[in-house]
Design a protein that fits this description.
With 437 residues, this protein is α/β, with parallel strands linked by helices. The protein is built from 15 helices and 18 strands. The strands form 4 sheets. Strands 1, 2, 3, 4, 5, 16, 17 and 18 form an 8-stranded mixed β-sheet that branches. The protein has a 5-stranded parallel β-sheet with strand order 11-12-13-14-15, sandwiched between helices. Strands 6-7-8 form a 3-stranded parallel β-sheet. Strand 2 (68-76) and strand 3 (79-85) form a beta hairpin. The radius of gyration is 24 Å and the shape is globular.
């Protein structure tokens, strides 16, 4: 009988102990290793190196829990080490104390739909309390100047340009594909460059969207979409994680004939959607529409995130006619009904909005979500933890909890008393460091 050397026995035993069972999908295929999602400028953001105790503030932690008055939050380096009531809890001896009595402490705001690649724009948003942004449709190099400026800017969760087909709505910010295989190549290319999500645009076929979603899933990236003429139900069934713009649901709420007429209109002229989307939403009956009643449970079941970007579509009679005003009222109503039905609503500013000064579109979006029917607390959660879930970064950002990264903002007033208090930012902490405003 052949004797196996002792060293081989130990070697085989060691290998068997170190092997980890590979997870399998329902298809039986081996799942690729998924890496956590980080902002593209993670390594460029200065990290805190002190122990800081924030005392006396009213804490709204982003989870929807009841506020904690007279709170104590201890940050060690860039990590939240303690969250609780100040009374009875000792402040570490080596801590720098920041007395925030009379202020309100929140997680840093997250913008799901940001447009603006200049140094000034990104710096301005950080001053407004927005500590993380996602640009869903711009070449990553557009942010090089901001990243090289040496100034503090938000965390940049970039997607690369829109993946679209000819003729694109925005040629300078589009990556054109002709078939599903090219969509697969595009996803892998952007993922290799550090994309944190993938954005698909409205001229793609459902087949292209499905291949893009399948490829992105293998790379651990969410896919979000501006649909316009693609049926939202078909696209979500193809694998979408998120929907950008409330107008993306228009064709799914029309009759098949009306939807096809609108689709043909836009296929012939991209710019026709400017007026066309209002005409679509003007005709919708949100209160008595079987399609509305069926799509909301579908969105809940599929756990689809919705970034309505209401602020960019807002129309009042000073800047719109009766069709546009009524259409916007229906958009508001649909968002409120979706939230009431359990859909996941997040905050995306679109940066530029007709009824907000530069830098304030995010606040206007929050106000419009309240008008749609969300409570102040629900709006705050949509801006923080819910958005972190959309970004797939909620294990370390989006709420004020022990073990998470210290991206925080202090307000002079309490937004639960008046949501307009969101525009009273006093201090911004990014990665454990108070930033100069």
């Amino acid at each position: 009988m052949k004797v196996i050397p002792t060293y081989l026995i130990f070697l085989l035993f060691a290998i068997s102990c170190n092997e980890q069972p590979q997870k399998k999908k329902e298809t039986g295929k081996i799942e690729e290793q998924i890496k956590p999602i980080y902002s593209m400028n993670t390594n460029e953001i200065r990290e805190g190196d002190k122990t800081i105790a924030i005392t006396g503030a009213t804490l709204i932690d982003g989870t929807g829990s009841e506020p904690i008055p007279n709170a104590l939050i201890v940050i060690k380096n860039n990590i939240i080490d303690f969250v609780g009531e100040a009374g009875g809890n000792e402040v570490p001896e080596d801590a720098e104390i920041f007395d925030a009595t009379g202020m309100t402490l929140l997680p840093g705001l997250i913008d799901a739909h940001f447009h603006g690649d200049s140094e000034k724009m990104t710096t301005l948003f950080l001053q407004k309390g927005v500590t993380s942004v996602r640009d869903p449709g711009a070449w990553n190099a557009a942010y090089d100047d901001a990243r090289l400026s040496g100034k503090a800017i938000p965390r940049l969760f970039l997607t690369g340009p829109h993946i679209d087909s000819y003729p694109p709505a925005y040629p300078k910010n589009s990556y054109l594909i002709q078939d599903a295989r090219e969509g697969e190549i595009a996803v892998n290319r952007f993922a290799d460059e550090g994309a944190t999500a993938i954005k698909v645009y409205f001229r793609l076929s459902t087949e292209m969207i499905q291949t893009i979603c399948e490829t992105a899933a293998k790379r651990g990236l969410p896919v979000t979409a501006h649909l316009e003429i693609t049926n939202a139900i078909d696209a979500i069934n193809a694998g979408l994680d998120g929907i950008e713009h409330i107008t993306s649901f228009g064709t799914a709420l029309l009759s098949p004939r009306e939807a096809e007429n609108y689709k043909n209109l836009i296929l012939g002229d991209n710019s026709a959607r400017g007026r066309g989307r209002y005409e679509v939403w003007n005709t919708l009956d949100i209160d008595n529409n079987p399609k509305v009643d069926s799509i909301i449970p579908f969105l809940v079941e599929k756990e689809t995130f919705i970034s309505p970007t209401l602020a960019v579509f807002e129309r009042q009679f000073d800047k719109g006619d009766s069709v546009e005003v009524n259409a916007f009222a229906n958009m508001l109503k649909f968002v409120g009904k979706a939230k009431k039905g359990g859909a996941k609503i997040v905050v995306g500013s679109h940066t530029f909005a007709p009824y907000a000064d530069l830098g304030n579109a995010y606040y206007r979006e929050m106000e419009l979500l309240k008008e749609a029917g969300l409570t102040d607390m629900q709006v705050i959660s949509a801006a923080t933890l819910q958005n972190a879930r959309f970004f797939r970064i909620d294990e370390r950002l989006g709420s004020i909890e022990k073990g998470k990264i210290a991206d925080l903002i202090l307000l002079r007033q309490n937004p639960l008393d008046d949501l307009k208090a969101m525009n009273t930012v006093e201090k911004v902490m990014l990665n454990g460091v108070f930033r100069d405003l």
